Amino acid sequence: MRASDNLQFSGRALTAYPMRTGLILLAMSIGVASVIILTTLGEGARQYVVGQFQMLGSHLLFVLPGRTETTGGLPPLLGTSPRDLTIDDALALKRSRSVQYVSPNVTGAAPVSYGAREREVMVFGTNNELFDAVELKILKGQFLPEADPRDAVSISVLGETLAKELFGKKHPVGEWIRVGDHRFRVIGVLSSEGQSIGMDMKDVVIIPVASAQSLFNIPSLYRIIVKARSKEALDQAEKDVIKIIRARHDGDDDVTILRQDALLKTFDGILKTLTWAVAGVAAISLIVAGILIMNVMLVSVSQRKAEIGLLKALGAPTRQVMTLFLSEALMLSLAGGLIGLALGLFSAKMVTFWIADFPVQTPMWAIGAALLVTVVTGLVFGSIPARQAAKLNPVIALSGK
Amino acid sequence: MIELQDICRSFVVGDETVHALDHVTLDIAKGEYISIMGASGSGKSTLLNMLGLLDEPNSGSYQFQGKELTTLSEEKRAAFRRENIGFIFQSFHLIPRLTAAGNLELPLMLMGMSPAERRKRSTKVLADLGLSDRAHHLPKQLSGGQQQRVAIARAMILKPPMLLADEPTGNLDTHSGTEVVKILEALNVSGITLVVVTHDVALGRRAHRRIRMLDGKIVQDESSRSNESAT
Ligand SMILES: Nc1ncnc2c1ncn2[C@@H]1O[C@H](COP(=O)(O)OP(=O)(O)O)[C@@H](O)[C@H]1O
Ligand SMILES: [Mg+2]
């Protein structure tokens, strides 16, 4: 039998029962469409997060005190606890030619007040280089000026939300606020367009790092942010940081360096897994559709017993009968799959329409996987009814019993 | 052409065994016109299905032109049916969603003939049957007699040497029945071996050789005209 005749014969069998065929197509296409939509959203979320990370500039290093176990190596010997990071450590890093900006950080929470208004917010001690390292933007006044980070100067820069809440419509620059027990003059307000580095930059007070150390009464740093001169210089910068710190810490590697690209990779991996997971859940609906196909085909086989008997009486071999019914199941699942694909891609486009800056890109693998699962569903769930049809006894089939 | 030897076929229904064919021995020569008569349940259809290789015996031998058929695989049995047997059924068994031409072309389609060649053949056959204007009608738009004529044409389109008809006029009025019988007899005259199972005594008498069955056994086998010499 010719393939084209096979298609036509099976196709006509399907169109002879429009209601039944329509329902299966609906089930199958909803399954495929949900795979497409969910993977598109998952992929969009991934690209969004990756994009956010990349906007930070991808050549940052975060130097943290203490060695994490995950970086390998021997556990510290008894009695040698890791040394703290100091402002002098941070200044020493400037010696590397691969390093462009170094920003020592101290963070903590403290009550901030202006007049009668008071709020508990994050206090971020740093230096002027943070501004360029993480590409902040200033709304009013100026950022911390270039100065020796060891000097505790009483100046502050406010996040936009905090400035509004403390000052309302009043101009904050030049005013004095109270942070803990200390008084600071406001010299600027950050724009909320600036990027965050693990904290909400809209709701912070930024003060010189030495001022933060005296405010919280700690001699050490929470971390150092290092920006390499370029992406290419990142590896060298990391090596230099390790070398410089080791030399200053009596030969011990007692810091942990997080690379932004490594963090990015981790997030990327997590979101990819998540996308696969939701796609898997959606694929279950395809299996449900497959079971539906099987049931409808089984009904069809028992309703068309006489036809099957006739085909056998006309000399159609077992294999041919099986092929005919299998192609019906395949056509059903494939048609459902294609309708679902169109539906899914259309819905994905609608998402772009509603959420303008959400990247919507249906991954090719999702389209391929959805169609593959469709075909496999048709083959697997169609083969049982097809086998049933093929092994019918022609005498009984023709007698209509 | 055909030699059945001690063919037995029994069915187990509940805890009873029904002997539908009980040691049936029968020779059929090429070109014969045979009618099989007998009470309902006497095994006529079972015998016809056995001849057409739709059914398998529990024991006995079936030789076709000297070749043993009972040992064939299902694949070979299908091929044998396609090449040697034309079936006619009481209820026509036309596929309801195919047109008259489509039903007629079904055996050609199954064997992979091109649509153009099929159409050429079916057009000619339909014209011979006087059904040219019904080519694109669905079975439900045809009368019973027309449907059975299409079914006969379908059975004959691959020119098998033997035609097996199980109550071909059972669902037809007298006039259409006569018409159908005339077509079958004309085919027999042209050399085709014809075996007709029937309830209709008048129709049964028309056959040159008349077989009567009772409880799975052949109880009478008479010929009005000796044409077995054609073997
Ligand atoms: N598939 C079957 N299962 C059980 N019994 C059957 C089957 N086919 C035929 N029989 C029995 O075999 C006997 C002969 O049947 P059949 O050949 O159809 O008779 P006829 O065509 O002469 O009316 C009957 O008793 C019938 O009930
Ligand atoms: Mg019968």
TrEMBL record, chain A:
Domain annotation MacB-like periplasmic core: ranges: 21-242
Membrane topology: Multi-pass membrane protein
GO CC, one annotated term: plasma membrane
Family statement: Belongs to the ABC-4 integral membrane protein family.
The protein, known as: Peptide ABC transporter permease
InterPro entries, alphabetized: ABC3_permease_C, MacB_PCD, Macrolide_Exporter_MacB
Organism of provenance: uncultured Thiotrichaceae bacterium
Pfam families assigned to the protein according to its UniProt record, in alphabetical order: FtsX, MacB_PCD
A single GO molecular function term of this UniProt record: transmembrane transporter activity
Automatic annotation (TrEMBL), chain B:
Source domain of life: Bacteria
Gene Ontology MF, one: ATP hydrolysis activity
SMART domains (UniProt xref): AAA
Alphabetically ordered keywords of this record: ATP-binding, Nucleotide-binding, Transport
Residue ranges constituting the ABC transporter domain according to the UniProt record: 2-230
PANTHER family reported for this sequence: ABC TRANSPORTER ABCH.1 (PTHR24220:SF86), IMPORT ATP-BINDING PROTEIN (PTHR24220)
Family: Belongs to the ABC transporter superfamily. Macrolide exporter (TC 3.A.1.122) family.
Name by which UniProt lists this protein: Macrolide ABC transporter ATP-binding protein
UniProt lineage: Bacteria, Pseudomonadati, Pseudomonadota, Gammaproteobacteria, Thiotrichales
